[in-house]
Amino acid sequence: MKSNAFHAYEEVEQAVMDKVRERIIEGPFLTALLNGEFSERQIAEFALHYSYYSRNFPRVLGAAIAAMEPLDKWWVPIADNLWDEAGRGNPKAYHSRMYRTFLESAAPDIEINEEHVPNYPDSPAAKKAVDTFIRFLQSATPLEAMAAVGLGSELFAGEVMGLIGKGLKHPNYNRDRNLNVTFWMAHADSHEPRHYQLCKDILIQHTGSDDLETIYRAGVKIAMSEADFYDDIYRSIA
Fold first, then answer.
1. What distance in Å separates the CA atoms of residue 95 and residue 86, rounded to the nearest whole number?
2. How far apart are alpha carbons 77 and 83 in whole angstroms?
3. What CA–CA distance (Å, rounded) separates 187 from 185?
4. What is the pLDDT of residue 3?
């Protein structure tokens, strides 16, 4: 693979974000969502697809922690992210419960058990995205794992989740119900920007050209897997 000859972390960050903007932010799923093109049934299907990804994300973070050096500066940033998934110790703030409020509003006819799992087949698109992430982390170096979580997910998660929350507020999706978008906006406003900064604080310490190339390749691989996830969801519900 041809080297990108990066000279600074900011160049890596921008290169990944350029691809994310093309594939996700300006991609077919978000474009249709923001334009109000989906039916209420399609929004329900999206909520059910994303449910698998959301409730399995702690497994991704666990795999990332396992890939880290047994040094506080490496594993603590990821553990902090995982602690957020657990509501920082407050059961009412578990992200699984937060997502349930959205799922109940989007798919009120679907039974959800006490563990917040809907009685609905697991999403192949979400399962592929989660499995791809975990498989990568299982053989990743600590630097690759930090880049995968940081640049491959957290860099753009806040913006993307904010856009999803904005799109879900479209009048076309709220004619006969009011979608609860708290889950999406909480991530956009505070959680994801902080999670990315924790990863970035480690990544920016690696300034050599080889390290920058490693960071880019790990980040863009997972970011494009995330792009495939949104494309697959779009194809499955469109």
1. 7
2. 10
3. 5
4. 58
**CA atoms of 51 and 150, how far apart (whole Å):** 22
Mean of the per-residue pLDDT values of the chain: 95
- The whole-number pLDDT of residue 31 equals 98
Alpha-carbon Rg of the chain, whole angstroms? 18
Q: In whole angstroms, how far apart are CA 1 and each of 77, 99, 118, 214?
A: 30, 39, 42, 12
pLDDT tens digit sequence for 171-204: 999 999 999 999 999 887 767 888 999 999 999 9
Residue 173 contacts by C-beta under 8 Å, 6 or more apart in sequence?
Answer: 36, 38, 40, 43, 167, 179
Pick the CATH number of 9-24+38-237 from 1.20.910.10, 1.20.1250.20, 3.40.30.10, 3.40.50.300: 1.20.910.10
